[in-house]
Write a structure and sequence with these properties.
mainly alpha, SNARE, Vesicle_trsprt_v-SNARE_N, 93% helix, v-SNARE_N_sf
């Protein structure tokens, strides 16, 4: 999965670069609109890259595991306190 995402991410970078070059060759009115939209696409792609990196890191898996255990313990503790 990670290899596939890296390849897709590379493709996305290439496509955005191509769109950027094409937009820069257009008339000023159209150019400004398209460059603004490309800026949004670049920001979205960067967010996705950061999110993927966060999720795929070993520390993220441990943090998710700890969070699940902590929430499970909270549920157990609330049930115990209700029984008392």
């Amino acid at each position: 999965m990670q290899l596939c995402f890296c390849y897709s991410r590379f493709q996305a970078d290439v496509l955005i670069r191509k769109m950027d070059l094409e937009a820069r060759s257009l008339q000023p009115g159209v150019k400004a609109t398209l460059l603004a939209k490309l800026s949004e696409y670049k920001a979205d792609l960067n967010k996705l890259k950061k999110e993927f990196k966060r999720i795929s890191s070993p520390n993220a898996n441990q943090a998710a595991h700890d969070e699940l255990l902590a929430s499970g313990m909270a549920d157990v503790n609330s049930v115990i306190s209700l029984d008392s």
